[in-house]
Design goal:
Strand 1 (about 140) and strand 2 form a beta hairpin. A two-stranded antiparallel sheet has the order 1-2. The protein has 2 domains: about 30-110; about 130-195, no CATH class. About 60% of the residues lie in helices and about 5% in strands. The longest helix has 23 residues, at about 35-55. Helix 1 packs antiparallel against helix 2, helix 1 packs across helix 3 (about 100-110) and helix 5 (about 150-170) runs antiparallel to helix 6. With about 200 residues, the chain is mainly alpha-helical. The protein is built from 6 helices and 2 strands.
Length: about 200
């Protein structure tokens, strides 16, 4: 049998105009102008807040070495990107059903278990920052070999990391506590006896 006698099944030819590109995660249907507009508003507000807080940081030497310089530049860049996203969303009709679409997207996000754990994580981190900034003590426990020092930072950090590990790792509470305790104490010991710094030195 020659190649001329060989028959092949007909394949459907797709024209260039009918071709549709889909990325790996197929996220094409998950976005809309209204969602983009909502994201732009949130990101812009967040960037503006960071820029304002970075300007409030002290400048010990010069502007080029100010601790708030990098956060300010980053937040300003993020703010302009949010403006660009919002402008494109407005041109695409993002104001149509904006409130309804944004409310539905928010309700869907809060309904997921992973998202709920993320919100709880944010709450734990905020509580951790508040506790470390407002509680301060340094216990000295004498032992036969040396005086063991235990600061408020270590106690709060061990409890916080244990909760976070229990929330995401879902291991037994005892295992989470042991891993958290030895990790925090190792870091605190290195800084205390290696660098002579009591973590955190200041807040």
């Amino acid at each position: 049998m020659t190649d001329e006698d060989t028959t092949y099944p007909d394949t459907e030819q797709v024209s260039a105009g009918e071709m549709e590109f889909t990325d790996e995660e197929d996220t094409g249907g998950q976005s809309s102008p209204a969602k983009d507009l909502g994201s732009a508003c949130f990101i812009g507000a967040f960037a503006m807040a960071v820029a304002i807080m970075s300007l409030q940081l002290d400048v010990p030497d010069s502007v080029s070495t100010a601790p708030g310089l990098l956060p300010f530049i980053t937040s300003v860049s993020l703010f302009f990107m949010a403006l660009l996203l919002g402008f494109k969303a407005l041109k695409a009709g993002g104001t149509q059903n904006f409130v309804k679409t944004f409310s539905a997207a928010t309700a869907t996000w809060f309904a997921g278990s992973e998202e709920q754990r993320s919100i709880l994580l944010v709450a734990i981190v905020v509580a951790y920052i508040v506790l470390v900034g407002n509680i301060s003590f340094d216990l000295r426990l004498p032992t036969p070999l040396f005086i063991f020092r235990l600061s408020s930072y270590e106690v709060i950090s061990v409890i916080t990391v244990t909760l976070i590990m229990k929330l995401f790792w879902r291991a037994p509470l005892t295992r989470c506590f042991l891993v958290s305790f030895f990790t925090i104490e190792t870091l605190a010991t290195i800084f205390r006896y290696g660098f002579g710094i009591l973590m955190p030195e200041s807040f």
